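User: My collaborator and I are trying to settle a disagreement about how two of our proteins should look. Neither of us wants to argue from intuition anymore, so we agreed to look at predicted structures for both before our next call. Could you fold the first one, then the second, and keep them clearly separated?

Assistant: That sounds like a sensible way to settle it. I'll keep them separate. The first protein:
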Amino acid sequence: MLKIRFAAALLAALASTAASAGVYTDQLSKCLVDSTTTEDRTMLVRWLFTAASVHPAISSLSTVTAADRDTANQVIADLFVKLLTESCRDPAKTALKFEGAVTIQQSFQVLGQVAGMELFSNPQVAAVMTDLDKHFDPAKLKVLTDEAASP
């Protein structure tokens, strides 16, 4: 159980970034999440994957083509424009007015985090993630937690 918690905490730390959002950014973020379907969020994850697939550290593991990336870019560009100019127009205008352009980045970052949580909650993905558990050294983790619990 400790190993699973450790892995979950590690993944959460990797997936999050520190950002201080204002009230209008929060409202826009909520609108983006509420205005997207599971399919939209799946497409967002696919787009992130296609973009990451060109990184030299993982490009040899992927069969994503330039055409796949272009299609994903078009789908997500259409989604972003629809969300900002139709579904969430008023919250987007207000957030831009009072909190600046960074609000767009921060709000879509929240949407990306929600999409990522959906990806990792898939039972098949979760099963693979749980396999990480068999590679942890429980003795070393116990020493760490014991040291942390000591006064």
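The second protein, kept apart from the first:
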Amino acid sequence: MPEIKKQLPQVTESNKAFWEAARRHELVINKNGEWEKASGWGEVFTFCVYRQSFHLARANDIPYNVAYVKLEEGPLLMTNIVGCENKGIYIGMPVEVVFEDLTPEVTLPKFKPVK
């Protein structure tokens, strides 16, 4: 059976600055049409843990989490919490941004617990 690859984010003109900043390991937010550097700090707003694969590309990741982090600046960002077990995640948990380089073109911002 051929390997099924995970879909990468689609870079468009409207989100290009976000993904370029992520490649530099910087988190930016769009504020009134301008991109501004964010602190990288936030807290878990809500999350879920997937225990069943809904796509073959994620079958080896089970269980995995998907979370919304409320950034210190206010916006919510959908992401994953890394650096802890899923059972250790809780709403209100303080987190900080980390970056996962997937390809030379795509880097994902993820969040880890603040120790």
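Some points you might bring to the call about the second protein. The radius of gyration is 15 Å. DSSP finds one helix and seven strands in the chain.
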